[in-house]
Amino acid sequence: MDTRPLGDTGLNPSVIGFGLWTVSTTMWGISDDEFGKDLLNHAFNLGITFYDTADVYGDGKGETLLADALGAHRDEIVIATKFGYDFVNYPGVQAGQRERPHDWSPAFVRAACEASLKRLNTDRIDVYQMHNPRIEAMQSEDLISCLEDLKAEGKIRLYGAALGPALKPERQVDEGLYAVKERKMLVHIIMNMLEQQLSGPICPAASENGVPVLVRVPHASGVLEGAFDETIQFSPNDHRSFRVTTNEMRRAWLDDGIKKLEMLKFCCEDAGRTPAQMALQWVKSHSSIRGIFPNIYDHKQLEEFAATDTTRPFSQEELAKVAELYANDFYLHRETASV
């Protein structure tokens, strides 16, 4: 597996990682812990060494599941987790996918870190991320001082901000630029060939400032895997069902996404890539990226993603064509496309 250095930690995890959201929450229809542990072990055996979770995933389950599955390999893997949501006083999935309250006080953060260390059964967290912070949190000197203290104590090795929620990209640009320019800290963003609102401004700034970037949703919630058509139906507990509740949302995300993928197939046909591998190779083409966490929910899919590194990297010609398509909204809505 291809690896890249992670800041000044001395760690070199695999670029293709494993995000535990799919196996530790109920929002992808996976509720079998043994299946989740088997999938994690298979990922490790394939060479994946970067694992991203959060204390709030399954209200602690995302961390305990990782420890149960790969605890024996702790020194061989890199662990990223997140903090900031108060899931003790606000347990369970919130109605309508609403966010739970944040608490950025040093006392809460220190307690959250200690609890994560215990659930992960480890003495250090490699990447500790603010979970969907607003810019005001990143501007807090008390919070940053707390994180610096945890780093000095060896409890965390690197800290940063996982930006969200997904419906607020304009706000996240400001948050991401503040994080990389003013705080010089790692950022974790949504980025894919169909959603470049954040990567466009943030990745160049991160490269200029020597800041690592982590990426989630590289397949646009499955659209870029090439497995959907216009008739796809999602189960009620699958988070993607929220994205197709109205005709307008369905067209913007799913129907238009399927059409856009067809226009991107030139990146597959002559390069020996599947659509899913194409999507991952495109993200990898950005030098600031240090980890990519696709949504993984079965063994076949995992093996396809892990094999991405055997395919050819993007050429400059391919990158330029993708950039042209994106800049013109793939020529689907010419009345709003740039010229």
Characterization of the model:
The protein is 40% helix and 10% strand. It has 339 residues and is of the alpha/beta class. It has a single domain, classed as NADP-dependent oxidoreductase domain (TIM Barrel, Alpha-Beta Barrel), CATH 3.20.20. An eight-stranded parallel sheet has the order 1-2-3-4-5-6-7-8. Helix 2 (33-45) packs across helix 3 (61-70) and helix 7 packs parallel to helix 8 (199-209). The longest helix is centred in the C-terminal third of the chain and has 18 residues, at 247-264. It is globular. It starts with 17 loop residues before the first strand and ends in a 12-residue tail after the last helix. The mean pLDDT is 90.
Topology:
Layout: E1 18-19, H1 21-24, H2 33-45, E2 50-52, H3 61-70, E3 78-83, H4 106-120, E4 127-131, H5 135-138, H6 141-152, E5 159-162, H7 169-181, E6 186-190, H8 199-209, E7 213-216, H9 247-264, H10 266-269, H11 275-284, E8 289-293, H12 299-306, H13 316-327
Parallel strand pairs: 1-2, 2-3, 3-4, 4-5, 5-6, 6-7, 7-8
Helix pairs in contact: 2-3, 7-8
Q: How do you describe this structure in short?
A:
The protein is an alpha/beta fold.
Number of helices: 13
Q: What low-confidence regions span 5 or more consecutive residues with pLDDT below 50? A: none
The counted number of beta strands is 8
Describe the largest sheet: 8 strands, parallel
Order of helices and strands: EHHEHEHEHHEHEHEHHHEHH
**Would you identify the CATH H-level superfamily?**
NADP-dependent oxidoreductase domain
